[in-house]
Write a structure and sequence with these properties.
The structure is a single chain. It is built from nine helices and two strands; from the N terminus they run αβααβαααααα. With 222 residues, the chain is mainly α. The chain folds into two domains: 62 residues, Arc Repressor Mutant, subunit A, CATH 1.10.10; 141 residues, GntR ligand-binding domain-like (Four Helix Bundle (Hemerythrin (Met), subunit A), Up-down Bundle). It has a two-stranded antiparallel sheet.
Length: 222
Amino acid sequence: MTAVTAFELATSSLTDALTRSVTERIVSGQIAPGEKVTEARLAGDYGVARPTARACLERLVVLGLLRRSVHKTAVVPVLGVREIEDLFFTRQTVEGAAVAELARRSSVPSAAEAAQVAIEAAAAAEDFRGQVAADIAFHVALVEGVGSERLRRMHELIIGEVHLTMGLHEAHRTTSGRKVAAEHARVLRAVKAGDVAKAQDALAAHLESARLRVVDRASRTA
């Protein structure tokens, strides 16, 4: 008899689908900061086997969406202002290197262009969740477009926390979606023009604007 669960999964890889669903619940705050996430909980919520739930937890820990010390239950991290500041410092370091290299090549990744189209559409529709997803895809595409496996892995270590801050602190809701889209567009134009300095400046300005919004929201809810 098939178990009836409260959450449905796509027909792609079960672990991938489970990871996407739990990520959405964490980022949206349905699973709150400080809340425990166990194999038993995921197996019960979704009707999956414990090994599948375990693989999902391990992936979410790697992505930074969960934290787990030795022999401890995984929990959704609570990021304070200092951690958020450090997160943006790391983003600037990694993503700044990526846009500089792309600008040297005058190479705009097609995935970044596609994400930009999605960002603009989400902004026009005032679709907050769509904006967040497209924004993450945009920045991931810039880093992956360089073609450096090590740079990609460095970015992967922080992108979960980036997603977490954008979702929980709802930074995009405190500014115009079109403004964020315009900031992204400036980065792409500078990369395409081969202007390294302008590409780095455009990215730095975009990340600084985001940092200020996230820190302000985090300070108010601390």
